[in-house]
């Protein structure tokens, strides 16, 4: 399949074969975020699934309750995301089977997911992964991963198509970044404090309405999973469908 | 990163308030990841019209001079300062003139019409398509972040001091999530009879 | 000494073992798998209604722009309450047909419960197909298809999609290929939301599907007039209608079209 590649800008006409290869990835849009509170944690995700400019589904959940109070979401290429969720759920099942139904701690889940991701270092899962739940002290915890398994714990994180739109808002409203005590002339930072569930849900809804307004791959619906010591609860709010 | 509009980094944002407008920019000039200067202001004014220019630094400087030249000639001919609405058309046609070899900038116009007293803002793409917004316009390498901040913090009808707080928080938190923006910031609060310019204390990383 | 001049200057077999001729004779190209579809089938369209699901696909097998085969069946019943609709490469479709026959044989063989509690459900068929599709893409050797699985499970309509990348999703109305652009907006006028499903009768659903097949025949150059339609109804079971034709077309406008071709105005 050799053909001529040239344009008015090139000095010489080159004759190289154009290679065409099957592309095993696609981008299915959507966005997710995770926030940790004092005794709870949430992962929220929109329910729109897209390819290019088409809306495949207006309700395709991508945040999952995996058991052991672990919330899980992998956003990006949805086939890889679904495969990763299944592999983690399977891994959790085997952990219970091998260790007499012992509860998997969130930090062990995080380490396990690192290995699932790094295991495909040279053919990666094309996803931004977030997990959330409670740590060993019962405090809210969120971990986030890059496609090949680098991970860190944080108070809040956004992932997916709208991450760059949502993340600075979260810095400002959850971690109070760039906020100072009035009258201190920028010498005294506003003290960090935990948010209540209701405050977090308000912020999440604001974050997603903003992302929906400005990003075509975000919208249709917002599903929030909330993990507390009493278990996992789900809330759904409609978003704009345009 | 050979994309001309993201070599030097930088952002501009403008907002409309009650009988006032605000325009702000960061102060960084870089060469890809290397920070070169922390006093590179991206906001210029021609009479009472303010122009913010993000993008390729050489084009920022060149265009700011082109508009100084053109608005001076306008003043000579018309014997009055150019109004924001008129200047917006001037920016658009100047950019479109170079449709097939463009200046790599994202201009933002802000000002108050001296005759009607109406606050006015507008943004453009690099070839002069006008975005006449009634709330806010953003531009530069942290435009995604600015959209997120403005869309969630902005409300219509803010008084000058509240508008200052809103635009400052929007800018500050946006540039902190962009590696090639920041290193200081300047904010202009423009009312009919007064312009207040403030420099913001920002993160230096 | 070895007197064969072709062996001179080469590593001796005594030291290094036989020279692996495969290396020298290797193809200059990497190993190649399916890189493009050959004979293709166009859109599959489908929707839920209060008592089941409807799915439709035309009977054309295109070879590029040539209308190569005009009696290809692209809807496959699996068991009594599932229909699989396949678009894309026809030979890959026939491989999938073989796989579907195979799981039915496996499930039915020596199984007295095969017609009741161990009957194949749509979700089983879908899970199997989506795993096949994802595994093949992960081997960089995809089956070049987009598939819709439609059926009834536990008294409720089931509808899901999977394609050559292993991407899966489900929605009250689904379509592959051109259908996603031309037909889906028409189907969504009827079932925009899961809550619309229980308000939609079989008649209005069937009318929407028939209308969509007409629109596709109008504007999709790789479509045919002849098509098949399958309904899985909770009460009536599987209804398979073959050899249907797009009817009630309005071609009056055609004589007024100007400017697309070389005709004189």
TrEMBL record, chain A:
Gene3D superfamilies given in the database record: Glutamine Phosphoribosylpyrophosphate, subunit 1, domain 1
GO biological process: proteasomal ubiquitin-independent protein catabolic process; proteasome-mediated ubiquitin-dependent protein catabolic process
InterPro entries in the cross-refs: Ntn_hydrolases_N (IPR029055), Proteasome_bsu_CS (IPR016050), Proteasome_sua/b (IPR001353), Proteasome_suB-type (IPR023333)
Subcellular location: Nucleus
Gene Ontology, cellular component aspect: cytoplasm; nucleus; proteasome core complex, beta-subunit complex
Keyword annotations from UniProtKB, A to Z: Cytoplasm, Nucleus, Proteasome
Family matches, as Pfam families: Proteasome (PF00227)
Predominant cellular place of this UniProt entry's protein: nucleus
Record-linked CDD domains: proteasome_beta_type_1 (cd03757)
Self-association state and partner proteins as the record states: The 26S proteasome consists of a 20S proteasome core and two 19S regulatory subunits. The 20S proteasome core is composed of 28 subunits that are arranged in four stacked rings, resulting in a barrel-shaped structure. The two end rings are each formed by seven alpha subunits, and the two central rings are each formed by seven beta subunits. The catalytic chamber with the active sites is on the inside of the barrel.
Protein's name according to its UniProt entry: LAFE_0G16842g1_1
Automatic annotation (TrEMBL), chain B:
GO cellular component: cytoplasm; nucleus; proteasome core complex, beta-subunit complex
UniProt-listed InterPro entries: Ntn_hydrolases_N, Proteasome_beta_3, Proteasome_bsu_CS, Proteasome_sua/b, Proteasome_suB-type
Localization: Nucleus
Gene Ontology biological-process entries: proteasomal ubiquitin-independent protein catabolic process; proteasome-mediated ubiquitin-dependent protein catabolic process
Keywords for this protein: Cytoplasm, Nucleus, Proteasome
Highest rank taxon of the organism: Eukaryota
Signal peptide (from-to): none
Pfam families named among the record's database cross-references: Proteasome (PF00227)
Subunit structure: The 26S proteasome consists of a 20S proteasome core and two 19S regulatory subunits. The 20S proteasome core is composed of 28 subunits that are arranged in four stacked rings, resulting in a barrel-shaped structure. The two end rings are each formed by seven alpha subunits, and the two central rings are each formed by seven beta subunits. The catalytic chamber with the active sites is on the inside of the barrel.
The name this protein goes by in its record: LAFE_0B01684g1_1
Organism: Lachancea fermentati
TrEMBL record, chain C:
Localization annotation: Cytoplasm; Nucleus
Keywords, ordered alphabetically: Cytoplasm, Nucleus, Proteasome
Annotated Pfam families: Proteasome (PF00227)
GO biological process, one term: proteasome-mediated ubiquitin-dependent protein catabolic process
GO CC field: cytoplasm; nucleus; proteasome core complex, beta-subunit complex
Family membership: Belongs to the peptidase T1B family.
Purpose of the protein: Non-catalytic component of the proteasome.
Name of this protein: Proteasome subunit beta
